[in-house]
Every structure is written in C-alpha cells, then in structure tokens.
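Exam review. A common question shows you a sequence with its structure tokens and asks you to describe the fold in words. Practice with the pair below. Do the first one on your own.
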Amino acid sequence: MTNPLPNANPVLVVDFGAQYAQLIARRVREAHIYSEIVPHRWSAAQVLAKNPAAIILSGGPASVFEPGAPRLDRAILEAGVPVLGICYGFQAMAYALGGDVDRGSKGEYGSTEASVTAGQGLLAGSPDGQTVWMSHGVAVARPPTGFEVLASTDGAPVAAFQDRDRRLYGMQWHPEVRHTPLGQAALENFLYREAGLSPNWTPGSIVADQVSAIRAQAGPARVICGLSGGVDSSVAAALVQRALGNQLTCVFIDHGLLREGEREQVERDFAAVTGANLVVQDASAVFLEALAGVTDPETKRKIIGREFIRAFEAAAREVVAGVAGPGSVGSGASNEDVGEVKFLVQGTLYPDVVESGGGDGAATIKSHHNVGGLPEDMKFELIEPLRWLFKDEVRAVGSELGLPDSMVWRQPFPGPGLGVRIIGAVTQGRLDTVRRADAVVREELTQAGLDREIWQCPVVLLADVRSVGVQGDGRTYGHPVVLRPVTSEDAMTADFSRLDYGLLARIAGRITGEVPEVNRVVLDITSKPPGTIEWE
C-alpha cells in the first residue's frame, strides 16, 4: 500500500474513540504538518516506534473511572515527545500523572466561556476570555505536580494546563471544531511554538513523496488505473502517470451508471491533459444484468465492486496482449515488454477507509466499492496514493499536477454511480430518469455559480414509490426524486445547503417539465450525522 510520506516523522493522533479524531488529524494537516491516526490499543513502544514528532491524545466517550476505560501508558508522557491531550486525552494525561479528576463535577456541553489565566505557551496570544466547545461530564480538579493552569470554566476548574519543561499540554475543550474560534491558533501554538515543527506538508511535498513511493512499489511492472472521470481517480492517475509514464494504462469502465456526458468528457479531456494511455471499455450490459432485481444497497455495492475488478482483469489481459479492445481509445504509445500488469491504481480516500470499517474499532457505515466491496480473489496488488488524504488535499494535489479546474472541482460522485441513487432495482429506464434529473441539477448549480460552495447534490430516485400529480390537466402517477445538496469539508460530516428558493423552484420546474417519469421533487435537509450523504 502506498505510503504518503514514507520517511516522515508524523504527528500521531491517538484515537480514544472520538467522533472528532479524523478532524484533529485534518486540522494538523491544515497547519501543513503531516499527521496519522493510531488506535489507543497500541502500546507505548508501538507509538514511539513511528518516531513521532508530536503526539495528540483525542477525546472519547469513556470516563477515566470506568472499568475497561482506555488507559494512557505513562511511557508515552515520559519519552520527551511533545504531547497534547484533548478532552478525554486531557483527563487521561492528568489521571496518569497523579492529578485529580472529579467525577462529581458539573458537566458542560456546547458553547462555553473559558477564563484564560495564563496567555502563554499553548494559549499564547489568547485574550482573557474565549468561547470554546465543551463536551464533558467529569473534569480535572487539580493538575499534576509541575503543571501550570492556563484556563478554567464554571464546570472545569482546570480547563487547560501545561508543563513546558516536560513538553506536556492539555485542554478540556475541543480546539479542532469550528465552534472554538481560537482552536486552530492553540493547535498551531502547540505544533509550531512548543513542538518546534515546520509547516512542510504541502501539495508539492505530497507529489514528490508519492512519486518516489509509487516508483519504489511498482518497479518496472505495468500498472492499470481504474479511471472514473471523478476527482479522486483522475488525481490518482495523474500522480501515477507522473511517476511511471507509459507503464500506466488508464482503464475507463463505462458501467452504464454514469452521469450524463461523463464518458464523452473522459474520452475527450483526460488523455489530452495527462498524456496517459487510455482504454475505454463499455461494460454497461454486464453491470445491468448483474444488478437485475437487486434492491439491497450493500449487495449492489459488492456486485459493482466485483464487476469492476472482473472488467479490469479483462482489460489487463488486453494490455498484456497489446490490444486496446473494442470501443477503446488510446494515445498510441507502445506497450513494449516492461513486465506484467501487477498493480491496480485506485482513488481511495481516507473517509472511504474509515466508513468501510478501516479504522481500529470503527463501525462499517457502508462498504465503498473500492474498499469493503473488493472480491477476495482479486489478482492485483493495489496502489492507492490518496488513501490517507482528505478531499481538499486531493484537490490541492490535482492543481499542483496541472489538472484543470473543470476536473479538480467536479462534484464528488460515488464509484457505484447512479446504481446507489436508485432506491429499488436498477433498470435502464430508471437510470435514464435519474441521469436526466441529475443533469438538470448540475446545470442549474453551475449557472448559479455554486460549484465550489456545494460539496455535492445527489439526486435520488425513489423508484419503488409512486405519487399522484397533475400535469397537462391530467392525472399522473409518477416517481419522486430527492435533492440532497450538502456542504462539507471532507465528507466525514456534512450539513444541508441552504439553497435559494428561486433556484430550488427552477430546478423543480425543469425536472418535472423535462423528465416525464417524475412528478414530484423533494428536499433532504438532514445533516451527517445522522444521515449519510448518499442514501445507499
């Protein structure tokens, strides 16, 4: 598996079961410093073996008093590595070092005012009071020996502390959330001032490190990339093309579940921009047959993942044979003998891994076709240069590689495509319906100048639901479609977008007027959590 920074000294985020562990790692990266998440079950020796530049202890749902609650090994705190504890991590640090943690304290949840008594070190530059985001039922009542108290709140006598000699720091509140306005400043104080780190995690450094890692992994072997035309696979392909040149052949599988105009755009634009060899295979009939009658979303995803791999295996055989295959296009570059096709490039992102149960103790929210949906007998080894990146980092890397904005800023689109935007069985007629409705929405959002403000707007066809309508003075019995416009930073959390009513009216009018099978348009205003961005 391709490592994003093979020689890095990462900032490690020790995950104590926090809902915000990924967000902490993201905020560290926003400070241009590479971070990784590791499970709390790792021993101190395992943590320190990664030679971390600093360690951040995340929050978590447990209490340090509970039987079986995660414990913090003091060896981590005694290794001389700068450590920052947040929420539960703050309490665990205090508890491990002999401080008092009060189980009878007043809980605090949400926006809270903190009084800052020492604006130095961790809280350098802070005013005497600041708004912070709290979520705790117990609190530190007395710090360990040698610690300076930096802040307090009504429910937390010790809300932040530090021991600069031992390079240990902590705060009860959550600096990683936007509801703590000065939270990023505190994190950067820890990273820059106290840990002495430099901001060297940049798009340019990611590209350079990945190119080296890809070359080391692939050697002289041929490589194929599963290109979808979306942001993730396009950036992954461009990275591998930069590293391997003509060893790479990009394979675009038209599974019949694409958005309107998608295949044409890939055939027209991608090879021209990257110079990559491109093979296009039309497998729509195969996918449609495999999905016939299937309504369970997990089963759909696994079928699509399986058929993708089978299609790639067939394409790889054609690459080895030196033929492009029916319905394909290519750059005409020679495929001289540089080895067999051993590797498959995928645009897997970190949120895909987390939602597919890839984190320690993480629940499987849904099997992404390129993670949990891959068949066990797959013949390829994977190159996944974006596996530990968030979407905004991927876009930045794409721009660094010279990809055009039209490609870098496309709305995210799931690998299983429109197959998981049809609630019910997938048929050609239903695909045509949701594809046209989706095209209307994308056209209107582009015309409204919202492509960079809206994370994405899935259009979901409720294929097994009928609604009565009146169109052309006659009764209709059509289908509803659901609009799901959301804003997000990385798809780990999302909020529904507050679109202008006039825009919504135009979209609804066009869909019901231009898509005969649809007579009702509804709006999904659910955040994530509790709802995922996609319905399936």
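Now try the second one, then compare your answer with the model answer below.
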Amino acid sequence: MQVPGPDTRVVELRVHGILGTTGDELTDSVASVDVAGDGVGRIMRPADRLRRPVPGPMLNAGERSVPRIVEGYVWGAMTSGGLAKATWALLFPFALANMAHWMLPPTRTDNPVSRVLCSSLRALMRISALLLTMLMVAQITVITLDLVGSQCLAPGARCLGFVPEAARGADVLRSVVLLIPVALVVLLMHRLSTVSWRVSAPKDDSPQHSALAPMLPGGNVVSDPDTPALRALHVAAALATAALVALGGPLTFSLDPRWLVAVAVLLVAVIGTAGLDDPAGMRETSKLFRALLGRRSRRVLMSVAGVLLASVALLPGELAGPLPGSGATIDALTALLVLTCVAVAVLLLPASLLARPVWKSQPKQLRPWAGGWMAAPVLMLAAMLGNGFGAGLALSVRQTLSVPRAPGAAPLLLPAAFDDVTIFWGTAVVLMAVALVVAVPWLLVRRFRRDDEDPIPDEVALLHAGRREDQRKAASAWRIADLQRRYSHQLFLVIAGVLTVSTAASLAARFAGMPRLPWLSAIGVVALAGLAVGLLRMVFLAATKRDTARYLGVLGDLALFWPREAHPVVPPCYALKVIPELADRATEHLKDPNTRVVLVGHSQGSLLAAVAAARLLESLPESDRERVGLVTAGSQLQWAYPRAFPGVVPHAALRDLAGAMGDRWRSLCRGTDPLGGAVTTWNRQVYNGMLIGVGLRGDGTEGPLPAATRGPTGALVLGGDHWLPDPQRGPFSCRRWVPGVLGHSDYSGDPEWDRAVAMAAGLERPVRGAALPLSESPQIPSAPDPRAVGSGAVGSGAVGSGAAGSGAAGSGAAGSGALSPQGDDGGSIGDSVEDLPRRTAGETAEAARSKRTKSIRSFRKESKRPVEAEVPEQQSHEEPPSETAEASAELPAQQDSEPRSEPSVLPEITEPRGRIAPWERGSSLRSTDS
C-alpha cells in the first residue's frame, strides 16, 4: 500500500440504488450541481448558494484529516420518468424472460454434457422469448381484427351502432384500419429494441459468453453483438403471426402463397433464434448464422414480413363472424410456450446437478437458490404475466363492447384458449390465497416461538450492549428482516408449483372433459381484468405523477440491469452505461497520483459499484489499483445476486474481488435491513463474549476471521463487514441524526460511513478499534460470567486474540474517531451506572479530568502488560485513590452492582479527535489486567 502523503485526497464516488434519488439526497447536501455526464447519467457534487461545486467534508482518518470530494452518479432517469418510460411496464414480461436467461447455472467447460445442456437451455430461453412476442401480437390481432373488425363491425351487427353501414360493408377498409394498430405495435417494438444509452466513455469491445463464469463479478455483463439479428427475427415473426391469424392459423394447411410465406418466415425465425448462441463468435455454427443474418438479410426478411401483412390487409377475405385462425393460432402458441417452459424446467435439473461441484464446497446459505433451478419459475412467471395481460385486455374489451347488449344481437366470441386462461388464473388465485392462509400463520407461529425461546439474539445483545430498549426494538426488526431474506426466493418456488397445478387444471378442463366451474372462471375473469386495468392505470399515473413513476421504476431497476440476451424487445440496459462511465470517472480522478477513489454503492448501486471496481482492477496498472477502494451499503451481494445469478456474480468471483481489493472492500450492513445484508462474512456467532465468523480474506482466500472489534461509534467490524447499531447510538455531535429503526435507508447518516470510506481508501487500518466489551450477563446467553474478568479468563479470550487483542485496543486508543455519543450511551458498555463520572459540588470539569488522568497513569505504572499508547486526558469514570490492583479487582463487582437511582453526570457531547470513545475505555483498561 502506498503511504499517504501530505497532498493526499479522497474522491468518494457514490451510486444510488432502486427508486432513484436526487443529487441532493445522494451527496447529503442542501444543493447539488452537475459536474459531468450527459443529463441522463449525471455526476453531481454539493453546491454552495451560488450553485458552485464545493468539496465534501474533511475525512477523519486516524490522526489526520484528509480532503474529500463527494460525487454522486444519478442514473434514475434511465428507468423512470415520462410517458415513454411508463409504458415500459407493459413490456415487463419480456424483461422478466430476458432476466431468466441470466439466471441459468454456469457451464462447466470441461464437461461436454454440461456444455450441451446449457446450450440447449439458452436456445429454449430464446425460443420462449420469441413465443412471448408472437403470443402478444396474436392477442392484439385477435382483439382488433377478429373481435372488433370481424364481429363487432360486421354488416348487420348492432355493436358500436354509430358506425355507418357503408363502412361495415367494406371489408378492405375494416381490415386496413384495424391492422394498423398491430403494425404500429410491431414498429414500436422494433424502435424500442434499437434504443441504447449513449456511453460517454471509451468503448471496450470485449464480449464474453454469458455462460462462462467470469474471474471478477459481472465480467460478462456486456452487449450481445447478435442483438440486431435477434431483433429482426422477432419483428418478422410478429408480422407473420398477425398474418396467420387472418389466413386460417398455422395448423390448417393452405395453398395460399401468403400462408406458405408466413410459415416459412416463422421457421426461419425459430431456427435463427435457436442458433444465435455465441456472442464471441468462437464457433463455426455461430459464424455461419452471423453471416446468413447480416444486415442485408435482416432487411430482406423484415421487408418480406411487412409486405405479407400488407397483402393480408388489402385482401382480407370475408370478415363476418369469428375468424377461424384466431383460436388455432392462440392454441398453438400457448401450447408451445407451455412445452418450452416445461422443457426448461426438466433440462435445468441435470444442468444444475452438473454445475453443483462449483458451489458444493460453499456453506448452504451461500449456494444458489433451489440448487440453480431458479430460472425455471422466473420464466414461468414471465409466460403467465404475458399470456394473462393479453387475455385480460381481450376480456376487458369484449365486456366493454357488450355493454349494453342490444336485444337479439349475437354475442362476441373469443377463442376457447381465453376461457382456458380464465380457469388457469382462477385456479392460480385460489391456490395463492390458500398458500397465504397457510404460510402467514406458520411464519407468525415460528416467529413467536423464537421470541419465547430466545427473546434477544446474541448478536443483537452484543451490538446494542447496555441499551435494553434498543435491543428489544432491534430484535423484532432483525427477525422480520431475516424472514424476508431467507424465504423471499421461495415465493418463486411457490409460484412454480401454483403454475404447474393451474396448467394441469386448465388442460384437464379443456381436453379431459372435466366439468368447468363457473365460479372459478369468474375469479379468473376478475383477476385478468384487474391485471390489465391496474397495469394500464399504473402506466397512466406514472406518466403524470413523479412519485408513482419512481415506484413503477422499481421493476425497471431490477429487470433492466441485464443486457438484451434472450429477448431484444426490452428497454435499454442501464448497466452498460453506468458501469463504463463510473470506471471512466474513477480513472480520470486517478490521473492525479495523490488521489484515492472510493466507489460507494447502496443497494442495487452496490452491484454497479462492485462491477465497476472489477473493471477498474482489470484495466489499471498495478500501482494505481492500490488507490481504488469499494464500500457497499445495504447490499444484496451475498444473499441474493450470487444465489440468483450464479453464472454472472458467483461466490468465487466475489472472493477474487476481495483478494484483489485486499482490505479496501468494506461493507456496511444492518441486521434490521430486509433488503441488504452481510457481504464478506457468514456463519457468525457470539462466543465467549466475542463476535466471530467465517468470511472472505484480503489475500483471496476464505476462512475463519479474527474476532470482531468495536468501532468508535459502536459498530462491530468483522472482516470486511461493519455491523451498524440500528437504532443508532447517539445523537452524535456534528452529525445528522435519524432516530428509530432505519432498516434499508440512510446508511450515509451513520458515523461508521466515514470510517469505512477511510479504510477503503487505505488511510486507516481495519483492526483499529477496541476489543469487544462484555455486556450484562443476562443479555448475552453465550457470554461467560462477568465475574471471570477478575481472574483473567475473559481478558485472555476477549482481548488477547489476533486483531481483537490488546494491539487493537491500543490502536483504538491512539487514533479514535472524532465523534462521540450523547445521551444514555455516554459510559462504557461494559460498565454499570455506578462507574459513570461524577464530581463533587464545586469541583470543576478540568479538575475532574486532571484527577482522572493521574489515576489512569498510576494504574498503568502498576500494570504488568505494557500499553502501546498513552491515553490522553479525557473525561471518564472516576476511581478511588487506592492502589490500581484493588481498583481492578473491584471492577467485576461493579459491573454486577445495581444502578443508582439518582442521575449520573454523562460525558461531554464531543471528544477531540484521537481520544478513546466512551465504550472503549473500560475494555482498554481491562486489557492491561492480565
């Protein structure tokens, strides 16, 4: 590590998470201005009253203060805001199917069976996405050309009576007018799939195969060069599907040249989609498909499909009554979609088993969800939403056109597949309701049983030692957050089971002759109509109200991180813009040899920051890598992303990143956070009054870690994880104060934030801080009897091991932070109210301080163990003027004594930089008593 010089400065480059934010909130300032970016990806700094950029507050690092520049990268405009982005919610099934492709297990390149299985799975994923596009266009065509044009506006029909009879008799007019919306939808799909964010950074053309495990996280999150070909295939297939609806469907053979051309276009689309599987162009088959689907070939294919639809519009045939091709087309596409989902679920089983050696050595809580099978339920959910939205829209339009229904008018008919969808959704709603009725009481009973058996977990008791009210609040929030993190992925497994049963029920009702239940179909109709109307209403509100747009943008924040791989008709991927621009901004700052850059990411931003840090480490020279740090807060980099996307963010990649970063990767976490959690540690437990665990090490390995140390503001630092007290210990001087349980919000308001940034910048050692003091014995069941402190049993275990030993206490004494709490946390955590400082009437604070300093010095002269640094003059507990040995012998008895009823004098709010935090004093004194 390079030694910091007198001109060293730190650039703290922050990235926000989901829901977006403003520059003021991201930089913790009352005003902010753009200093770089293109208006879509904005790099902002705090500003003064004249809106001029100003640096951030000084960063306290050990015994010195270092200039700090705070910058924030705001990317929320890429996923929310305006009517155009609001309509992206209608394409959420497509984005979900594309995300499922990135959830496939990694390919074992040394196993040919694994390579074949994974290639087949990727092909099936792309075919499923193609079928989703075709099904959506077919449903829109059924609504416009069949339901409205051929039935509602048929000659003699009484539906939409304001339409003149002359217009009803012109079949060409009706077909042209009602196929225009279909053509516009396909055109908009093509237009949207060509939109990509302009990257204001040097282009790095290094595509990697999405199935190959990267050496560092997100190394394969790159654009696919085959996306233009995939886009052309989707557009051609969509136009051919609309034509087939009018030409009798795909199952009825016809000698009409248009029917033959439509079938040929569909075959080309399916074969081409299945063959585009190698973005790097390493295989001969990939080179062949890429040559066949060049720019000229793509234009010819889309032109043929466009001419085909135009011929159908100009020569529609007879439009009187339901079209015979509607039901056949919907049935065929639905059946193929179900078959591909089943095939993916079946092939995922052996593919996951073959990939199991990659993660079988990991602890259970770090292995992929469902053994790497999570892509199947996500794909099923995408298919259910895509099919359900189209069916709900069709049923809503039919209901609207049928009210009021004229006497003697023929009813408007939809294909039988829509009735099957109502049974499917009705069964799904009933089963989900049953699952909720069973799951919610089970979770409540499980929670209350744990409350009775273990009211306050050991980690909570240790983190909030001496604060019983905070322990009770935190314990409840810890359990709720733990339930959400532990069982959230099982929701997808429940959905997969529900979809399987619902599919079987709808197939049995359709083909096995089982009686249809009217109430079940009614529930399905209501659910589908609610889905369609609710989604359209959300789009409208999001286009007109900013707050709704931000909440709707959550879907985009989660799904649009992933580049177009399986489905090209999805909104542009923001990661392809944010990550290169973050890395480029950091590189620009690193041109100054005195600058150190710390990438800081909160929630979803932690994934962006981690991938950007990995890109920096790959591109920078060795000398500059040591000036790059990483801080993640409220991150899902352990409990979610490696388990849901084992081929993109595997645990091994995080281990490699931790080894490349050394001790410069710090993670802020709270047990009360339902969305974030630990990143670098696991298997944590309280043993002998210490927090221990296993985690990632700075040398690129993983294993047992030294016992956690207590930070100046009460945080427990275990490995690279900083466990923050929530509620905070405070208020703190010169620091924004937020009371109550914070959960996933406001990490930057915690004083430990600055300490983590200083560590990530290499300006402070992670081992700095006192060893853990013991709390009252009834609050930590696993802690030993506090009376054993006098005999040295605990002193040798709690303070004399590794980084948590007396050296840690000494360094904490030498360079504690500038912040100290006020309120009821002013004294040492390990001491009772008896030990809080007192002074007699008339005694000045300076006299009390002088008296205390002399007592501490006399104590150290008598101690057998040398201390590394002199404790400066400070406000602390008074001791009797007797010999130090007697005072130390009485310390355990004082810890068990009853608190006095009269109020105690607490320390001052502020402590000068370099003094020991109040809760470190008792443990630093005890460390010399052995």
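Model answer, second protein: Residues 205-214, 768-930 have pLDDT under 50 and may be disordered. The longest strand covers residues 595-602. Full marks require stating both points clearly.
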